[in-house]
Structures are given as structure tokens and as C-alpha cells.
Design goal:
Elements: H1 2-6, H2 21-30, E1 34-37, E2 59-62, H3 71-77, H4 80-94, H5 104-114, E3 119-121, H6 124-127, H7 157-169
Parallel strand pairs: 1-2, 2-3
Catalytic activity: Transfers a segment of a (1->4)-alpha-D-glucan to a new position in an acceptor, which may be glucose or a (1->4)-alpha-D-glucan
Pfam family, one: Glyco_hydro_77
Family: Belongs to the disproportionating enzyme family.
Length: 172
């Protein structure tokens, strides 16, 4: 009905949370890409559909969303078992030494860039390795949300080089 009324728009379905068979069927039937949030992948106690090797082309991969902690903030706050699981998985998936000097944001971004998803999105806060002081939104709260702004001095030739390098490496 949406396609008939509005045409073929670039819609992304927010298919997060508990997904019933009916929701999965509706998503499939619509043809809209769903969301893959890497920050949701690392629960060491259970299997996850959010691990990048499970992404399919018709999806959009994110490090996290505006409602999540920054990756550096998540890494600082998550249980140690899950943090270790994330590092083990990401270094193996990316083929880098676990003792590499890569920061957690770099690993997350590279993992979604490497994935099969047709589109990969990372927040600037994650490129900059900023902690939760740069978080965009805390759901169900008022007052301090949507205040983070990129400062001009945070944009550097090094950052541009890093983004260009990973984009070329994974043909994004």
C-alpha cells in the first residue's frame, strides 16, 4: 500500500526488539531493508543475529543508533565477559591480531563496513572514539538529549584519511 501510494521510496524498516514470524514475513514481503545494530551483538550468554557474518545484503548495518551509547561508552560499561567476547569476535572476523593497536570504535566500524549489508552507517562519535559524554539520546529522558555537536577542530586530515582508507578497503 505504501509503495502504491507513495512510489518506491528508500525506506529502512526499524525491525528491532522482539521479532515475531509475522513481522519477519512483513519485512520480507515489503522488500524494505532491516536494521543490524552491531552494539546488540555481544551478549556472551546467547547467540545473536546481530553478528556481522550473519548480515544479508538487504539490510543496513549500524555501529549503534542515536538511542545507544557510543561504542567507547558501551565498551566502558558492558560486562567484562561481553567486552572480551566482542574483542575476540571482531579481531577474528577482521583478521587482525587481538593485541593490535586498533581502538574499539575502529573495530566496530570496520566490521560493519566489511559486512554484506548494502549500507553501513556509523556515528561520528564512534569515528572519534568519544565516550558517553557525546551520546546523542537517552530514551525516555528529557533535558540533555540531542545536544552533542561536532566541533570544527575534531575534523582532521587524519580522520579523513582513516575514513577514506576504510571506505576504499571495503568498496563502500
Amino acid at each position: 500500500a505504501i509503495k502504491k501510494e507513495l512510489g518506491d521510496l528508500p525506506i529502512i524498516a526499524e525491525d528491532l526488539g522482539f521479532l515475531t514470524k509475522e513481522v519477519k514475513k512483513l519485512l520480507y514481503d515489503s522488500g524494505y531493508p532491516g536494521m543490524k545494530i552491531l552494539e546488540f551483538a555481544f551478549d556472551s550468554k546467547e547467540e545473536s543475529d546481530y553478528l556481522p557474518h550473519k548480515y544479508h545484503k538487504n539490510s543496513v548495518a549500524y555501529t549503534g543508533t542515536h538511542d545507544n551509547e557510543t561504542i567507547a561508552g558501551w565498551y566502558n560499561n558492558v560486562e567484562e565477559e561481553d567486552r572480551e567476547y566482542a574483542v575476540r569476535y571482531l579481531t577474528k572476523y577482521l583478521g587482525v591480531d587481538i593485541k593490535s593497536k586498533k581502538k574499539i570504535g575502529e573495530l566496530f566500524i570496520e566490521a560493519i563496513w566489511k559486512s554484506e549489508s548494502n549500507l553501513a552507517i556509523a556515528q561520528m562519535q564512534d569515528f572519534l572514539e568519544l565516550d558517553n559524554r557525546a551520546r546523542m539520546n537517552i530514551p525516555s529522558t528529557l533535558g540533555e538529549n540531542w545536544k552533542w555537536r561536532l566541533k570544527g577542530d575534531e575534523l582532521s586530515d587524519e580522520l579523513v584519511r582513516k575514513i577514506k582508507e576504510i571506505t576504499i578497503k571495503y568498496s563502500r
